[in-house]
Amino acid sequence: MATHDPLAIQDPSSFEKHIGTLFQNSNWEVIVPPANTRGYDLELRRDKLCVAVQIKNYTRKCSFADLEKFKSFLELPLAAKFTHAFFVSASGFSKNVLLDAEASRRERQEQKAQRDALAQQGGQPAPAQDETLPRANASANLVLVNYRNGKLEFPSLESSAAEVPPVERVRYIGVFTCKGGVGKTTTAAHLAGAFALMGHDVVLLDLDPDQNLHKLFRADLDDPGSDASLFVPAMVKGQMGTTITVLSHEQWDKSRQAGHTDLDAKIIICDCSPVLSENLPELIEKFDYCIIPTTLNPLGIAKNANVITRTFAHIRQINQKAEMFCLINSFDVGKAVEKKNDTLLTHLQKEIDHYARHDPKCRLIHPSQAKIRYSSALLYWGYHIIDGSPPQLAFREVAGRSYPRTDFLQLAEYLEEHTDIETLRHRGEA
Fold first, then answer.
1. Which pLDDT belongs to residue 328?
2. Could you tell me if 275 and 387 lie in one domain?
3. Which of 8, 73, 164, 305 is deepest in the core (most CB within 10 A)?
4. What would the pLDDT profile of 126-154 be if each residue is shown by its tens digit?
5. Do 139 and 53 reside in the same domain of the chain?
6. pLDDT recorded at residue 344
7. Are 173 and 268 in contact (CB under 8 A)?
8. For residues 360 and 323, is the Cβ–Cβ distance under 8 A?
9. Domain range for 389
10. How many CA atoms are closer than 13 Å to the CA of 427, on its beta-carbon side?
């Protein structure tokens, strides 16, 4: 639950002035933008730095959606003058926002260490890195700042984290589609990666006849019988990392029937067969939640969205309890297609709302709340099986950002907020 600082001034303009005063006291030059300026609240200058400041005085924790809106401004040409950015919150940040920030910080450290090591191998000292200069744009140099007890603090993940305790019941998530080419397997794998970053062990059940998850997570590509898994290092100092384990339905059944406890996962994500009738009914019955990814194009949603609603109906024939979500995948955020996106979204929302009149557990996740953006990282995910490198997710940063990591953490955050998955976290966690 968010804790709003009781010292925070309620009036937005007065609160912004107060934050400006705090920055002035820290030797920043504070510039107030002209009235009705959108995108940022204050401009800070010192030495070579030019910082855009966004200030939020919410009673809830700031979410990915809040952060992404600020980042979208920072990537516009009119924000080119900014080298860095501060996002100030009077109520803190969701844990997934902090996880993404910590993953970004660690990746920058790893990249610097690799550059230093390469320079040493070549007998030349590593070039000095001026940390005051931007790596890409201000979005890549975004810093989260808490307002607490009348002071500005830079939050750490450790201060908000707690161990993830065992829970009584496993949650099953099915990823379905009855149309190929919409990123079903990629969605299943990277949603598992997001939950792993959040501190959960995850089992990926590979129900697709092509067994692509086994191929993508198998360390020994020449041995079809070798284990398929991935270790995800912990983002919190002093905590253990987590695992993603890929199993066939037969392997999962055998392990459970034998009473094995070596699989501690409480989140089971199923990459289902695209032929709906080939999915085992006894497994579909277990699903608590189902995700149906689709692309936002005329063929992706089809007339009357029947590809999606047909999938809803098929699942509902077998499972009466599952909550079902339609997810927009490979979303193009370009301004040139904004109008077409709005038209297609309106059409899709209308059709799903119509269907939901008799099945209210079905809904569209609006892209403003969560979506998976088009990215070359996801398009080329799996290239490691060609070049022989170790299995990995498409969470590496490009130009200081990882859209896939951010998007899948935001999707996991959405699911937490709209289901009971959040109960998997420590009850005492803020």
1. 95
2. yes
3. 305
4. 554 444 333 456 777 888 999 988 889 87
5. yes
6. 94
7. yes
8. no
9. 171-423
10. 2
For residue 313, the one-letter residue type is A
List pLDDT tens digits, range 359-380: 999 999 999 999 999 999 999 9
Which phi and psi angles does 334 have, rounded to 5°? Answer: -65, 145
Q: Which amino acid is at 9?
A: I
Residue 428 lies in a domain: no
Q: How far is CA 85 from CA 50, 54, 138, 264, in A?
A: 8, 8, 6, 40
Amino acid at 283: L
CA dihedral 360, 365, 369, 375 (to 10 degrees): 170
pTM of the entire structure? Answer: 0.76
Can you spell out the DSSP letters for 198-210?
TT--EEEEE-STT
84 — phi, psi (to 5°)?
-140, 175
Here the tokens at position 210 are 């092509």
Q: Using one digit for the tens of pLDDT, what is the confidence trace for 19-39? A: 999 999 988 999 999 988 889
Q: Is 222 exposed, middle or buried (0-12, 13-18, 19+ CB in 10 A)?
A: exposed
Instruction: Answer yes or no: are the C-beta atoms of 49 and 43 closer than 8 Å.
Output: no
Whether residue 24 is found in the same domain as residue 71: yes
